[in-house]
Amino acid sequence: MKVTAEVHLAGIGGWLPPEVPTADAVADGRYGEADRRASGMLAVRVADALPAPDMAVRAAATALRRAARTGLTADDYGALLHCATYHQGPDGWSAPHYVLRHTLDRPVGAAQIGPGCLGMLTALEMAVHRLAADDAADAVLLTAADNFSPAVVDRWNASRLFLLADGAAAAVVSRRGGFARLLSVGSVSAPAMEELHRGGEELFPPGITVGRSLNFEERSDHWRRRWAEGAAPPRTHLGDVVAAAVDRALEEAGTGLEKIARICHTGYSEGALHTIYLDPLDVEAADGTWDFTRHIGHVGAADPFLGLERLWTRGEVVPGDRVLLLAAGPGMEVACAVVEITAPYQPATARQEEDL
Fold it and tell me: Are the beta carbons of 170 and 13 closer than 8 angstroms?
């Protein structure tokens, strides 16, 4: 979707717990040395018992302080969209409204958005539609957070594509200006591939209700066996969906990949990052955020925004630079956004944020 209206990222924030070196996980037997070497991962962020919604509140506090520099107050927000890829708390309870209560604390709508790891980009697109349809409020708060510490999850071995990490990100989408202007946002899906994440698992009863772990590798093994038995593999490669989504986003933004300064992508392990994201786009790891994500892991839907915050606050992208945000999720679906940096990060101003 080409964004023709003035829509900006007015604020952005991230929160990450301490890192656990992958070498430590190997030393205590949680992770295999061969897998560690193949992944290229150096560390993973682990929050232990800190609830995911509380991490979202911490990230949102930073994003809201930064957005307040544009004149936004809590009364200017029309909605909160919270993204999660794993369970947030009690069944039948609303994590989005918990985050709303502890951030904006206003009687606006709050909703949880999926699907999975591209949720925050999906929420970004929804925020654009919201601002276009309702001029009564000038901003929407986006949050994303996950904690994969429950015993039923083995963050080190649930997938060879990534290591599950804990953390949160937040962003403020606004009409009033900010540090980046949104040029395009959208997604491309390949629904015929949705069964790859089911892996033969029954839809009912839901796996978590019978103590089944979140284990993508078991589901991949299921399909490897089926294909060895003669079942037809998917005709579409996820990398092709990535390329199609990126091509569309770039065209709608009126730019080309050669004009993109950096790519903020999902925090995959090295091999998967190249196969799914970098190789289909014919770009190098240095064009993305691998130097950052290999110390973090895969923080669900938060990854692209954690990367953007890192690049902006370190001055690795400056006004005039265009940045591609990119994520893939179950479905299969790939979402992209193109933003243009319009204001530099100013450390002196950042210190003054605490007074707002």
Answer: yes
List Cβ neighbours of 27 (8 Å cut-off, separation of 6 or more): none
| The CATH number fitting domain 8-178, selected from 3.40.47.10, 3.40.50.410, 3.50.50.60, 3.10.110.10 | 3.40.47.10
Name 84's Cβ contacts closer than 8 Å, sequence gap at least 6. Answer: 52, 95, 112, 114, 119, 144, 145, 146, 300, 301
DSSP string over 284-301? -GGGTTHHHHTTT-B-GG
Specify the residue for token string 């690049």.
311
pLDDT at 222 over 80: no
* 8-178 against 184-342: fold identical: yes
The pTM for the full model equals: 0.93
Residue showing tokens 């709608």: 252
Class of domain 184-342: alpha beta
What digits encode the pLDDT tens for the residues 24-44? 999 999 999 999 999 999 999
DSSP, residue by residue, 295-329: TT-B-GGGHHHHHHHHHHHTTSS-TT-EEEEEEEE
HSE, CB side, 13 Å, CA atoms: give it for residue 97.
6
Task: Indicate the angle between helix axes 303-313 and 119-133, nearest 10 degrees.
Answer: 80
Q: Which helix (H) or strand (E) holds 125?
A: helix 119-133
Lowest mean pLDDT among 184-188, 212-216, 336-340: 212-216
